[in-house]
Structure formats: C-alpha cells, structure tokens
Design a protein that fits this description.
Blueprint: H1 2-20, H2 39-46, H3 51-57, H4 62-67, H5 71-81, H6 93-104, H7 113-133, H8 147-154, E1 157-164, E2 169-173, E3 176-179, E4 183-189, E5 199-209, E6 224-233, E7 241-245, E8 249-254, E9 258-263, E10 269-277, H9 281-287, E11 316-324, E12 327-337, E13 344-351, E14 355-365, E15 368-374, E16 383-384, E17 390-394, E18 399-403, E19 405-413, E20 419-428, E21 430-432, E22 445-451, E23 455-464, E24 469-480, H10 481-485
Antiparallel strand pairs: 1-2, 1-5, 3-4, 4-10, 5-6, 7-8, 8-9, 9-10, 11-12, 11-19, 12-13, 13-14, 14-15, 15-24, 16-24, 17-18, 19-20, 21-22, 22-23, 23-24
C-alpha cells in the first residue's frame, strides 16, 4: 500500500513538473537549470518506499544518497521489521519509555546508522536460516542434504568479471545452471564476448541480494552482495590443459573446476563453464571464507614404524559421480575403505542398489597412501558407465558434445564422516596400454586421471564392443600423507 501511495505521489509530481518546468528532473540540483524539490518533501516521498527501493534510490545521485540514509526513515523500517512478535492490549510503561528514548537518540547517530543496523540484522537472519537448513547431512555423501534448498532461499546467483589489461571490467550473468547430486554446473555464453587478447583475469563471484525477500524471486537489478569464489588468469589460456575438442570448439581446463571453450576458427571465447562442489559452497558464495566447522581431530599415519601395522586409514568413504549437463554416467558410493602399513586385507563395500564384499590390498609408499577402490582381479567390482559419455555444451548459436569427456565429482569422507577431499572437475578419457599387472581385456583400454595438492585419482576403463559401453576395471586413490597428518 505504501508503495502504491509513493507511485501515485511520484506520478502526480511528474505531471505537475511537466506543466511547470519542462527542463530538469525530480530533485534536480539547485542552479542546474531545473526545479529542485525541498528536502522535506523528498524525505516524505522516500518514507513511503520499501527498504530495497530505498537502497536503489540512494544510487541515483549524491543528494539522493544522503537523503536515503535518513535515520528517521530507517528506524521506522527497522522497528517494523524486527518488532516483538506479540500483541499487548496495554503497553508496558517501561517499554514505552525505552521506545521514546530510541526515537530521541536517532539524531545522535551518524547518518546511515539505522540503515546499516537493518542490513546487518537482515543478513544475520539469512545466515541463521541457512545454517538451520544446512544442518541435516546426507549419509551417502556426507554433505548437507538440503543444499539445493539453501541455494534457492538464499537467492544466490553467479557472475563472472572479465578484467582487461587496461583495467576495464565486463560483468556477465550466468546463462544456464545445473544442480547435480554434489555439485553445481554454471554456464556463461554470449554473442558479445570481449576479445581474448585484451583479457587478463576472470573472477568467479557468487552474488546474493542484500535484502532477501523470501516471498519474491531475486531481481538482477536490485542491490546485491558479491563474494569472490575463485580467480583465474587468462593471459596464457591456450597453454592450459586441453580437455578435448570437436569441430567447433576447443575446451581448456583452469584449476579449480573451470572450463573455457574457444572457437576453433577465431580463437575467441565461446562459453565458460564453472563446476563447483557442494562442500562449503553456500558459505563461500555468501561470505567468501567458509567458517571452520571441523572438530579438532588429528589423523595420524605412522609411516616408518613397521612394528605397528594397526595404524593407518580406516573407515573412509568415497562417493563418485560422472555427469554432464544433468546426465549421469556413474553414481556410486564405496564404504569402509582402509589401509595399513604394508600388505593388508581390507573390506570394500560397494553400494549401488546392492552391497558387494571384496578384498583388496592397501599400501603406504612414496609419501602417499594408496587406496584401491576397484581392482583388476575381481570382476564383480567392475562398473559400467551408463549411456554415451560426452560433455555437452551450448551457446546462442551452436551446441555440441565433446566425446569421452565429462565432469567428475568426488567426495571422500574420513572416519568421522567429515569431507576430507572434495572436487568437481572436467576429465577426459585417454587411450592407455593394457595394464601389465592385470588380466588381458578384449577391447581398447582408457584411463582417467585427476591430481591436486591433496592427492591423485586414477581410473582404468575398457570399451566393450558387444554392449557398446565402458567398464571401470580399476580405481585407485593416492592421498598425501602430509595432508593426512595435518588434517584436523
């Protein structure tokens, strides 16, 4: 209703102004050739606006910025939004006195004080709501079970900021978004990319409304809060890891999790694709640095003590997804992974609509712990990839699919069920020789590799011509002992 009155007042004044003075504008600066409304009238008009509209009004010019910071307007908004949730027939004299004192102290505060208080409290309420939503944990992935809901209620959006060497910036909103089991895939494409030769860096940011309205979808034109998630260099893009290509584009991988597609003919940007794992994603995209939520637990691996074979990793759990644009080729969970120093036997439970018990060997060598998740000798562990593997892409003009490529999401949980190693990254199957230490497979063999500071993941696959599908015949993790011993 207040917004309606403000609109009526605004339209009425514009009509009067059009009749009296064709030049100038609403609230024009004195001496600029236009008519200027007194501040008292402008404040009266601004008092009918809601908080979001008031923030936008403050961006018009310097005068409106100062007027939109008025403490009397904001304390009224603050009091309405955060008034006690109760109704009394009679007002307590003490409460009445406190309220009067607050109103009297408005002028003692600096301009914009109550605006800052209101915004801070609104942000705190969103934080509290998100923390409540993210409490429930999915037992299969060890990640918050309601991450999708948290992303929805937070109004989170994604932008990339392309920075030229001259300092000019280009801000682009995401064009597509796919929410998977344990990651988010965000895509940007456009007909008006800046020239690649002029670009120096790419900033990936999460943007959230400063004032989230639970009952309305977030608007791109409203005030938003950016949070830097990752920063990438574009100076030597073609020297980065080439993931794959088709007849239109070549795609390059920038760590962590960014794919950049270049047109083959022009060597210019075609699309950008960011793969973001759910682990601490909501926190990073809202407040740049996730809060420390891990218990103070130190994991010990005794590498040199051969007399203590009992120590090592135990109770680890692995969840792996292979997918592209909402299509899944693999979705599997492996439980009770553990290893000891030297050759030991451990139990591997694989869960994919059923459980399988298998024996495998674990090792600690060369500064890495080796966990064999699937191994050659036991054919009951071998897993098929469902469907034709390929990484789909699209732009305003063309679309395509790069064969043998996909996105791999990995979530490795420690013995306490806490995420130890999480990533979402594009991968590509490369041709490889038949393994010398395993059985001979009829059909071409391939491998998938991923490596970062925490560890390495290696898969061996075989193409079965009769069924036209890939089978994973080996999966091995190599985890850094330094990372494990400093894990807390």
């Amino acid at each position: 209703m207040a917004t309606g009155r403000a609109r009526l007042l605004h339209q009425h004044w514009l009509g009067v102004q059009a009749l009296r003075l064709p030049l100038g504008g609403l609230g024009a600066i004195p001496g600029s050739g236009g008519f200027s409304l007194p501040s008292e009238i402008l404040l009266k008009i601004l008092s009918y606006l809601d908080a979001t509209t008031l923030l936008c009004t403050g961006c018009v010019n310097r005068r409106f910025y100062h007027l939109a910071n008025d403490n009397f307007i904001w304390i009224r908004i603050y009091s309405t939004a955060f008034s006690p949730k109760r109704c009394n027939w009679r007002i307590d004299p003490v409460e009445k006195t406190v309220a009067s004192m607050n109103l009297l102290s408005v002028e003692d505060k600096e301009a914009g004080y109550w605006k800052k208080e209101y915004i801070a409290k609104r942000i705190a309420s969103v934080k509290a709501a998100l923390a409540q939503v993210l409490k429930l944990v999915n037992p299969y992935t060890g990640l918050p079970a309601k991450t999708k809901e948290a992303l929805r209620i937070s109004g989170l959006g994604w932008v990339i900021i392309l920075k030229e060497k001259s300092g000019k910036e280009h801000v682009m909103e995401h064009a597509d978004l796919f929410i998977n089991h344990s990651s988010v895939m965000v895509v940007w494409y456009s007909k008006n990319w800046p020239s690649l030769a002029t670009l120096s860096t790419l900033d990936l940011c999460g943007v959230t409304p400063v004032l989230m309205d639970w009952h309305k979808p977030p608007t791109k034109n409203g005030p938003r809060w950016p949070s830097l998630v990752a920063k990438y260099s574009l100076s030597n893009l073609t020297d980065s890891t080439l993931v794959g290509c088709d007849r239109f584009v070549r795609i390059f991988h920038l760590n962590p999790g960014l794919l950049v597609g270049l047109w083959k003919r022009a060597e210019e940007l075609a699309f950008v694709m960011a793969n973001l794992h759910f682990h601490h994603l909501v926190e990073k995209a809202h407040w740049a640095r996730p809060p420390c939520t891990y218990p103070s637990i130190v994991h010990l691996v005794f590498v040199k003590c051969s007399c203590s074979p009992e120590y090592g990793l135990h109770g680890y759990q692995l969840h792996v997804d292979l997918h592209s644009s909402g299509t899944f080729y693999l979705c599997s969970t492996f439980r009770n992974l553990f290893t000891k120093q030297g050759d030991t036997e451990f139990l591997l439970q694989f869960e994919k609509k059923r459980s399988i018990h298998a024996a495998a060997n674990g090792y600690i060598e060369n500064g890495y712990v080796k966990l064999i998740v699937i191994h050659f000798q036991n054919s009951t562990e071998h897993l098929p990839l469902i469907g034709k593997v390929g990484l789909s892409w699209r732009t305003d003009v063309f679309d395509g699919c790069i064969k043998s490529c996909s996105v791999m999401d990995v979530t490795l949980l420690d013995e306490y069920g806490k995420p130890f190693w999480c990533f979402s990254s594009p991968v590509c199957m490369q041709s490889s020789a038949n393994p010398s230490d395993g059985p001979y497979f009829v059909g071409p063999t391939y491998c998938i590799d991923y490596e970062d500071s925490t560890g390495t993941m290696h898969m061996e696959l075989v193409w079965i011509e009769e069924t036209e599908e890939y089978f994973i015949v080996s999966m091995v993790l190599y985890l850094s002992i330094a990372k494990i011993n400093h894990w807390s």
